[in-house]
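REVIEWER CHECKLIST
Item 1: Sequence provided? yes
Item 2: Single chain? yes
Item 3: Sequence as submitted:
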Amino acid sequence: MTAGAKLLQWNNYNPLQGDHKYMARSPWVDKESCISCGLCVSTCPDVFRFGSDTKSQVFNPSGAPEAKIQEAIDGCPVQCILWKE
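Item 4: Structure as written out by the authors:
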């Protein structure tokens, strides 16, 4: 078994099911631009939370499907959430 196949098996990734436990990109928050509105936290509570600085942070980048994370990105009023490859 190749290292890549082992990684996918370890993450329980099934590409036919659209599993989100393995993603080629991760969400990232520009904390300097974040206004702490809470939209991302309410949209994807398994991905985003407020840090001790009251700004949004990513604590579990694979906690939701990419489409749901994209919904949070699209809804951000200051566009401070980006994808990092």
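Item 5: Key structural point noted by reviewer: The domain at 23-84 is CATH 3.30.70.20 (Alpha-Beta Plaits).
Item 6: Recommendation: ____
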